[in-house]
């Protein structure tokens, strides 16, 4: 037992996978102690979300050979988290999730460093996300997933033949759960479908029509939404409803009860009121554990190549028996997010202001309040005020000049997308081409028109 | 300071309710071996608030354990693993009674089988074949639920062993509503008669619920077609066209809903084949030893054959649909009244049967019978073979089917190899690839072992790929944290289903395939 590889080691079990050659492994797999050390030294992983999935992910990744982890979450700990978010205790209620989660895992797993970020994902500069080797998502919102996806995909560059350049690919591993069901997926931008390519997997939630709430309520949820969406404003005109304010919730509940009585409808309870108003998704420890474990395992495989990777979407359903299914979804060749970028043709005289106005009308973009960056340089920023002021003077300058007279290049814009009556923050990659610079370009355009 | 359980457990109460939670809080769980697989299983159960846990492990914490088990840390080295894991678990939820016993589970199975009878359920992790078989017999005899979980490199398994598990609240995601559109009872028909589909007032027209539209249209159709409902494709299409023709404006959501729901009119009458199987089960011939479930099944059977005229008791709820409040609420009342009437008949029959078999006629509560009636179309009965039976007499056709089916062949390969490594260990005192330096020998030995195992099972071994055998040796009995968390997560999920008697537990053996995630449940 004096052999270096059999001496007592923390990575006793992991070594079997990382040090030994294998037959069913990824193309980059290069087994050995160097691989193990490289994972520790060079691989940096961002966990987005420190909730039910995030807590599990941090633990799983810390015990999967990674030592450089960061976690971002804007939420504070609540009592109702304690049935599954096992890194939190009752005395932690009210504290930032990211900070407590990072601290707890570091306390138990020595050698692991976790940097917490207690803020919104949109608060970080885009470049922040480029620092990581892999981004792992433990989120419960479609909007947040969509945002991180657009950020990660924006780093992807294409060569002149429109083939993705692997070196610019930012892998993502995404998990999600609801009750006894969940999914885990691997997103290799440019190679496998991104979140937006398969957005149809997440149909938008159906809202009750206002006329049903106002005129023909039929069930308890209708009465609750009437109190929440209509009656509240009638009575409190102007004062915003705060779902975390117990007095507000009680008021809605009482109003819903009154309305239900008026219409002979049963089933309004306080718990249902909270569920409907806050759109609570039931969540349990076991499903989160399963999905996070699958995500952590895939992260290890992407980073090390120690086995094949999930290709590319796993669903887990434990409601009736146990069903685990892998589906190989395909990319949307016209995807706005992970494709080579929307092509925008401009005259060299177009100013930055004109360009921003154009984005708002562009049928594929419908992007308002745009901030524009070119090769990491801020051309115009809507916020914060300091940056806005600093970049305001650029608005009247031609974009061509601002882009260093490049005839074509990639520009990143962030802003608000207005699609289907819904506003979401997003990031888009645009391929800006200036017309009339060289003859060949003009001929191409003529041919395509 | 203690958290209000209602708030702490809010997110799970929305899944299994107060009843499920009470069942969890009454349960006492025993864990054998507290490596990461066992520890992670219990973690999920402790968070959910099980009554008590007893952790059994005879080993002491080594450095290697720190790399795969979150429940131990540097200060645990050299100490009892059961003690350290138990202490961490207790920290997660002070409402749980946590105990540990520093003893080797294998020894306990050998020397003190009576020990296991005190538990609701035993979670047995990382046991080898021989101990699994012995423990299975002990638990089966004592009526203790048992679940096996094992992580092994990038593979692993979860297997439930319970003689019989019956479920009333199976809570399926998608299930056809019980509307009886093609077979309305008198009160529903009478209610439909009071409503005129040809009402000209537009607001009334667009607020007639689709249930009424379909009942009336179906009646019209049968009158014109000698008493039969639309059955051919063309007839179904025609039926939908007839509904469409009744619309007086394009924005009539109720008519759109009626067209979409028209398949409910075409649904077959009577009970499903699954329910038929249950009422035909030998257990529905009840005696003094019958469980409450089977007593109620016996009553249900009588109901279906008599008052129900081939149908189960009405569920009594209707989905939301476009309607005026008044019509909707009245319709709801009609369904509820019929469900209540059906329930009263079943209740009477239950009480009669109880009396007949010499039990207190009131030993099954009204609430229980009501829930049984409401869920009678969704009842589930799960039975599990003894592990020993499965190991010695697996279903050969199923075995062959899995081996030759591309979707299943890797999982089947792992199933065989997971058993082969135990045979290997019994012969060579270590698992294949457990130590470096003997890989090549171990690969060929494991191959021989696996092939002879397949032969013993009456199967051809040529389908086991060299790649899979080498991978199994590479795994070298390692317990990777992520795999253990996955296996433990599934094991805890199944434990919850067994204890709450809600949802449907998995039916066979889950074989985890951590290579490409094409895991499968094998029924052998
Ligand atoms: Zn895409």
TrEMBL record, chain A:
Catalytic subunit of the dimeric E1 enzyme, which activates NEDD8. It catalyses: ATP + [NEDD8 protein] + [E1 NEDD8-activating enzyme]-L-cysteine = AMP + diphosphate + [E1 NEDD8-activating enzyme]-S-[NEDD8 protein]-yl-L-cysteine. Belongs to the ubiquitin-activating E1 family. UBA3 subfamily. It comes from the Eukaryota. One of its GO terms (cellular component) is nucleus. The active site is at residue 211. Its EC number is 6.2.1.64. It is an enzyme of class 6 (ligase). Keywords: ATP-binding, Ligase, Nucleotide-binding, Ubl conjugation pathway. Pathway: Protein modification; protein neddylation. Transmembrane segments: none annotated. It comes from Erythroxylum novogranatense. GO terms for biological process: protein neddylation. InterPro entries: E2-binding, ThiF/MoeB/HesA, ThiF_NAD_FAD-bd, Ub_act_enz_dom_a_sf, Uba3_N, Ubiquitin-activating_enz, UBQ-activ_enz_E1_Cys_AS. GO terms for molecular function: ATP binding; NEDD8 activating enzyme activity. The keyword Membrane does not apply. CDD domains: Uba3_RUB. Residues 344-435 form the E2 binding domain. The keyword Repressor does not apply. This is NEDD8-activating enzyme E1 catalytic subunit.
Automatic annotation (TrEMBL), chain B:
CDD domains: APPBP1_RUB. GO terms for cellular component: cytoplasm; nucleus. The keyword Ribonucleoprotein does not apply. Pfam families: ThiF. One of its GO terms (molecular function) is nucleotide binding. GO terms for biological process: protein neddylation. Pathway: Protein modification; protein neddylation. Residues 9-503 form the THIF-type NAD/FAD binding fold domain. Keywords: Nucleotide-binding, Nucleus, Ubl conjugation pathway. InterPro entries: APP-BP1, ThiF/MoeB/HesA, ThiF_NAD_FAD-bd, Ubiquitin-activating_enz. It is found in: Nucleus. Belongs to the ubiquitin-activating E1 family. ULA1 subfamily. Regulatory subunit of the dimeric E1 enzyme. E1 activates RUB1/NEDD8 by first adenylating its C-terminal glycine residue with ATP, thereafter linking this residue to the side chain of the catalytic cysteine, yielding a RUB1-ECR1 thioester and free AMP. E1 finally transfers RUB1 to the catalytic cysteine of RCE1. This is NEDD8-activating enzyme E1 regulatory subunit.
């Amino acid at each position: 037992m004096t052999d270096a590889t059999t001496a007592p080691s923390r990575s006793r079990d992991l070594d079997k996978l990382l040090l030994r050659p294998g037959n069913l492994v990824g193309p980059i797999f290069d087994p050995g102690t160097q691989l193990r050390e490289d994972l520790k030294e060079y691989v940096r992983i961002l966990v987005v979300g420190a909730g039910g999935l995030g807590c599990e992910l941090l633990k799983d990744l810390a015990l999967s050979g990674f030592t450089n982890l960061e976690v971002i979450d804007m939420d504070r700990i609540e009592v109702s988290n304690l049935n599954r978010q096992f890194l939190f205790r009752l005395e932690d209620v009210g504290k930032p999730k990211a900070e407590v989660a990072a601290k707890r895992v570091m306390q138990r797993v020595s050698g692991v460093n976790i940097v917490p970020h207690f803020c919104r994902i949109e608060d970080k500069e885009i470049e922040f996300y480029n620092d990581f080797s892999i981004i792992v998502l433990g989120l419960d919102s479609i909007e947040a997933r969509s945002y991180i996806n657009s950020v990660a995909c924006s780093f992807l560059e294409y060569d002149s033949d429109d083939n993705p350049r692997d070196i610019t690919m930012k892998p993502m591993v995404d998990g999600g759960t609801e009750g006894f069901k969940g999914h885990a997926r691997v997103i290799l931008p440019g190679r496998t479908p991104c979140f937006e390519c398969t957005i149809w997997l997440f149909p938008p939630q159906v809202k009750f029509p206002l006329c049903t709430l106002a005129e023909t309520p039929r069930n308890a949820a209708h009465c609750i939404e009437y109190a929440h969406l209509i009656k509240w404003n009638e009575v409190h005109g102007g004062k915003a409803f705060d779902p975390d304010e117990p007095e507000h919730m009680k008021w809605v509940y009482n109003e819903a009860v009154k309305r239900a009585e008026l219409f002979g409808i049963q089933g309004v309870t306080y718990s249902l009121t909270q569920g409907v108003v806050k759109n609570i998704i039931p969540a349990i420890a076991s499903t989160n554990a399963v999905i996070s474990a699958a995500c952590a395992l895939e992260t290890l495989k992407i980073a090390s190549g120690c086995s094949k990777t999930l290709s590319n979407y796993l669903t887990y359903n434990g409601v009736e028996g146990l069903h685990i299914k892998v589906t190989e979804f395909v990319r949307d060749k016209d995807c706005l997010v992970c494709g080579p970028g929307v092509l925008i043709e401009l005259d060299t005289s177009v100013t930055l202001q004109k360009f921003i106005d154009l984005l708002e009308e562009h049928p594929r973009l419908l992007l308002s309040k745009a901030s524009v960056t070119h090769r990491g340089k801020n051309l115009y920023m809507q916020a914060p005020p300091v940056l806005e002021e600093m970049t305001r003077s650029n608005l009247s300058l031609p974009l061509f000049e601002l882009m260093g007279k490049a005839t074509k290049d990639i520009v990143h814009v962030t802003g608000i997308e207005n699609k289907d009556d819904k506003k979401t923050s997003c990031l888009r990659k645009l391929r800006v081409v200036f017309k009339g610079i060289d003859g060949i370009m003009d001929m191409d355009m003529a041919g395509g028109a | 300071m203690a958290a209000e359980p209602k708030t702490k457990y809010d997110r799970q109460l929305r899944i299994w309710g107060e009843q499920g939670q009470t069942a969890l809080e009454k349960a006492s769980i025993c864990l054998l071996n507290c490596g990461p697989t066992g520890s992670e299983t219990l973690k999920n159960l402790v968070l959910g608030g099980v009554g008590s846990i007893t952790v059994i492990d005879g080993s002491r914490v080594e450095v290697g354990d720190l790399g795969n088990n979150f429940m131990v840390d540097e200060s645990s080295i050299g100490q009892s693993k059961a003690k350290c894991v138990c202490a961490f678990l207790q920290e997660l939820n002070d409402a749980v009674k946590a105990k540990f016993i520093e003893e080797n589970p294998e020894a306990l199975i050998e020397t003190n089988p009576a020990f296991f009878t005190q538990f609701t359920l035993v979670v047995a992790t990382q046991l080898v074949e021989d101990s699994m078989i012995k423990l299975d017999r002990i638990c089966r005899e004592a009526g203790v639920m048992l679940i096996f979980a094992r992580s092994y490199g990038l593979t692993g398994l979860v297997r439930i062993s319970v003689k019989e598990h019956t479920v009333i609240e199976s809570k399926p995601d998608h299930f056809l509503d019980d509307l009886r559109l093609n077979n309305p009872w008198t009160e529903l028909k009478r209610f439909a008669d009071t409503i005129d589909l040809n009402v000209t007032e537009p607001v009334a027209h667009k607020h007639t619920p689709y249930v009424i539209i379909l009942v009336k249209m179906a009646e019209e159709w049968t009158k014109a077609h000698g008493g039969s409902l639309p059955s051919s494709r063309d007839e179904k299409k025609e039926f939908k066209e007839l509904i469409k023709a009744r619309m007086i404006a394009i924005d009539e959501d109720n008519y759109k809903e009626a067209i979409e729901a028209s398949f409910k009119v075409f649904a077959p009458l009577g009970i499903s084949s699954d329910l038929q199987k249950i009422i035909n089960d030998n257990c529905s011939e009840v005696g003094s030893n019958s469980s409450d479930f089977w007593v109620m099944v016996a009553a249900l059977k009588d109901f279906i054959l008599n008052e129900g005229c081939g149908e189960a008791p009405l569920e009594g709820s209707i989905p939301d649909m476009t309607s005026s409040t008044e019509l909707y609420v009245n319709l709801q009342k009609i369904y509820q009244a019929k469900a209540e009437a059906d329930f009263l008949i079943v209740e009477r029959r239950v009480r009669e049967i109880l009396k007949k078999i010499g039990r207190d006629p009131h030993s099954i509560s009204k609430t229980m019978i009501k829930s049984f009636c409401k869920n009678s179309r969704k009842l589930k009965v799960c039975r599990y073979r003894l592990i020993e039976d499965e190991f010695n007499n697996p279903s050969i056709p199923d075995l062959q089917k899995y081996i030759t089916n591309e979707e299943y062949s890797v999982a089947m390969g792992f199933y065989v190899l997971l058993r082969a490594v135990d045979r290997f260990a019994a012969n060579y005192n270590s698992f294949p690839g457990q130590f470096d330096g003997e890989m090549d020998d171990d690969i060929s030995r494991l191959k021989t072992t696996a092939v002879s195992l397949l032969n013993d099972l009456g199967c051809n071994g040529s389908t086991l790929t060299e790649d899979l055998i080498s991978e199994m040796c590479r795994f070298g009995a390692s317990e990777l944290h992520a795999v253990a968390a996955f296996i433990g997560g599934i094991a805890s999920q199944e434990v919850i289903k067994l204890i709450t008697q809600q949802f449907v537990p998995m039916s066979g053996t889950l074989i985890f395939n951590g290579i490409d995630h094409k895991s499968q449940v094998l029924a052998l």
